[in-house]
Amino acid sequence: MMISVGARGSKLARAQVQEVLEELRSFHPNAIFVTTFFETSGDKDQLTSLRTLAKTDFFTKEIDEAQLKNHFRVSIHSAKDLPEPLAKGLKRIALTSGKDSRDVLVLRDTDTLYSLKKNATIACSSYRREEAIKALRSDFICTDIRGTIEKRLEVLFQGTVDGVVVAKAALIRLQLEKLNHIILDCKPTQFQGRLAVIAREDDHEMEKLFSCIDRPKKKRLYLGLELPDNNAQEELTLVHCPIIETKLLPQKKEHFLQLEKATHLIMTSKMAVRYFMKMVQEFAIHPQAYLEKPCFSVGKETTSELKNYGFTAIHTAAVETSEGIVQLIQSHALVAPKVKIFWPHSAKSRDKISNFLHTQQIQLIDCILYDTFTKKPEFLPTISDFDEIFFSSPSTCDAYIELFGALPKNITLLAQGPVTLGIIRKLTFTAVEEENGSDLEDFCERGISYTSK
């Protein structure tokens, strides 16, 4: 089954064509693409800024014209680059499930968010991305960038800029996920990470053929306690099925009275904030003992929860892990004898923070507030009904194994943060080793996607 295809000629575009072919072959094993590659107006013009560019045919014009002249049956594009409306006579016949939709800031290997110089230069191509960069560090200076992913990264590694913002999906498709990068906290542009297949309006044969890979709306199973605050997304159906629950552990008032002597606090989850506030109110601890003290927060959602309760001196980690908290504390250059930190947390918290404070001889008031347990829903969902499964914590991974036996194959597995992602990788990689001795790269090629959320 030979199918003539038109597409842009970059390395990324070629990888996208191959991705669509592999997806189609899962339904039509004999499918073969014969591809014509183009350099479009958007590829040739490296000066026009993308910041104010409307949804035009900037990246598709030459391909659209050739397709309307019957030079090939279908064209394959990054779905976010399509004009609105499409050229007259063309029709989108498939929208793939795609890859990770988020944006990332790529840094050189030895750099961190805190090690970059003041007024470091970050290359990005939209106001949306620039806002996310400024939220990380307000002193960053943003500059326009154009060109292929390879050219953008070359600008970074040559030292012309200190960071480059790209789509995470591009790193995945070019097998560059190992590059040092930070996930940006911003809403992705519509259809980012997804691929579109275009045919002529009257080509019903191609429309029928590609209907098997058309996934106009993803269905995601969310297993955490609560849906994230920013869960509203187009083209996504969320099903919330919590498979864990938390329980407050017995606490002593004497422990919380030590808050008076604490100079700083650490908060590593929204749940820790809530249980902490429950206990200080129950023990009648004066708000002056905690509300105005510097508090190191693990991430944006925890910070939002702290603000809801009236905390004012909040410092938020750039990376939502214990390691991120450690980096944040290091950036404040605390003097050991004068510092005492109160840390209320889960019984399942890793010891990264406590070990670091011990090595720095910083006093720690360790408060184990709550524990997490598996919660069996009244009705277990049918996993094959979903395109994605979202694991919000290591506990959800453990609970899933307890309830379902093993992580699924051929479904995108999403993880809240790198720690949960590492557990998913370990569980799936071990399963494959036991099955056929494959390495991780081979496993990824078989259709399981990993994404840090």
Core attributes:
disordered C terminus; 453 residues; D-Maltodextrin-Binding Protein, domain 2; Rossmann fold; globular; 4 domains; alpha/beta
Please tell me about this protein's structure.
There is one protein chain. This protein has 453 residues and is α/β, with parallel strands linked by helices. It has four domains: 2-97 and 194-215, Periplasmic binding protein-like II (D-Maltodextrin-Binding Protein, domain 2, 3-Layer(aba) Sandwich), CATH 3.40.190.10; 103-183, D-Maltodextrin-Binding Protein, domain 2; 219-243 and 375-452, 3-Layer(aba) Sandwich (Rossmann fold); 247-374, Rossmann fold, CATH 3.40.50.10090. 31% of the residues lie in helices and 23% in strands. The protein has 15 helices and 21 strands. The protein has helices at residues 11-25, 41-44, 61-68, 127-136, 149-157, 168-173, 204-210, 253-257, 270-282, 300-308, 322-331, 352-359, 394-404, 417-436, 440-445; strands spanning 2-8, 32-38, 74-78, 90-95, 103-106, 121-123, 141-143, 163-167, 181-183, 195-200, 218-222, 236-240, 244-248, 264-267, 295-297, 314-316, 340-346, 363-374, 388-391, 412-415, 450-452. The strands form four sheets. Strands 13-18-17-14-15-16 form a six-stranded mixed beta sheet, sandwiched between helices. Helix 9 (270-282) packs parallel to helix 10. The radius of gyration is 25 Å and the shape is globular. It starts with a strand and ends with a strand.
